[in-house]
Design goal:
This protein is mainly alpha-helical and 354 residues long. It has 20 helices and no strands.
């Protein structure tokens, strides 16, 4: 890791730009007000006073239709992701591109899921992030294909994710099960991050740990879903992703030693899932666990940003903070649209720096 004048020269410009971008992320009070807003119109009024104003104006301003709000949020994320790559030091752009590649693959998975469910492009366009190799215009073209196999092939054509998507295609050809195929895509993506984690350990170990926390989240969600379905570890173990903070043998021991979800999550030390368990018991929604873990990754990212000004960690932390800001806004807006409980939402969405 660079120090002193070396870090200042290498990260000075990037850190200044990222700090400026970070200052635009919604603060604790505003996010609290948004989560507790009485309706979507009130949320839009608040967002119109922030950097989201431009994105809302692009889709109709204060008269924006509710179904277009996702478009505005996705546009904002795409714009900031592109800027983040551009302001990164040239020697580390490959690293940051690998990390934000999950948004390319998010688009690819959204396209595939839409095809299986028989959903047209217009119905999912707002969920797509207009960024990268599978931006909105590319997605619209690919979705004209008539089969899942053809869509996989189109997604793989001249793509940096050819091998990752290819592993998913092989699973789909054998099983005709898109859920399993997407699981294989996720596994292959995170496996590809192994070299990134190794590189980050050299640059900054704390930054590597944030990515490893995300891998842990994926693995823990796999175990939770396994418990819900009553599966044996042998049936789900192949879906685990390596290189997390919790090793595969530890995960196996954790799973086999738990009789139910309660005892499983109690044994997870890297995340505090007590509140998530309470919400799950009252709603039956497994999403409670994912929301809780995402927000804990957010808090770790905030600490990293605050303590690693002249470092790659500041760039990485912003990427996670921005992603979870958009994720939180979507939860808050959907809570108002569908009449979900504000109390339960607020228990999980903790928006503050520590």
């Amino acid at each position: 890791m660079l120090a002193g004048s070396g870090a200042a020269r290498h990260y000075g410009y990037s850190s200044a730009r990222v700090k400026s971008m970070e200052s635009q992320i919604l603060d604790q009070k505003l996010m609290h007000d948004i989560i507790n807003a009485k309706d979507v119109s009130t949320i839009l009024t608040m967002l119109f006073q922030t950097e989201f104003k431009k994105d809302i104006e692009d889709f109709g301003g204060m008269g924006i239709k509710h179904e277009l709000i996702d478009f505005a949020l996705s546009r904002n994320l795409a714009r900031n992701v592109s800027k983040l790559v551009q302001v990164s030091p040239t020697t580390e752009r490959k690293l940051i591109r690998s990390i934000v590649g999950k948004w390319d693959l998010y688009n690819a998975k959204t396209i595939l899921e839409a095809k299986v469910r028989g959903i047209e492009y217009d119905a999912v366009a707002g969920k797509l992030i207009d960024y990268g190799v599978y931006n909105s215009s590319v997605a619209k073209e690919i979705m004209r294909e008539e089969s899942v196999e053809n869509i996989f092939s189109k997604l793989m054509l001249n793509s940096p994710y050819r091998d990752i998507l290819g592993s998913g295609l092989e699973v789909y050809k054998k099983e005709k099960n898109l859920l399993h195929a997407i699981g294989e895509v996720d596994k292959a993506y995170y496996k590809s991050l192994g070299s990134v984690i190794t590189g980050l350990r050299v640059i900054q170990n704390e930054a590597a740990r944030i990515i490893k926390m995300e891998i842990d989240m994926k693995n823990i969600m796999l175990l939770i879903r396994g418990k819900v379905s009553g599966a044996k570890f042998q049936e789900i173990g192949s879906g685990l992703i390596a290189d997390g903070n919790i090793s595969s043998p530890e995960l196996e021991q954790l799973y086999n030693g738990a009789r139910d979800i309660d005892t499983l999550v109690q044994q997870v030390k890297i995340y505090d899932l007590k509140d998530a368990t309470g919400v799950y018991k009252s709603t039956g929604q497994l999403l409670a666990f994912e929301i809780s873990m995402k927000n804990q990754i957010f808090r770790s990212s905030v600490r990293l940003l605050n303590h690693s000004i002249l470092s790659f960690g500041a760039i990485l932390a912003y990427a996670y903070m921005k992603e979870i800001e958009i994720y939180t806004l979507r939860i808050a807006i959907n809570s108002r649209l569908y009449g979900l409980s504000r109390e339960e939402t607020e228990r999980l969405i903790i928006w503050k720096a520590e």
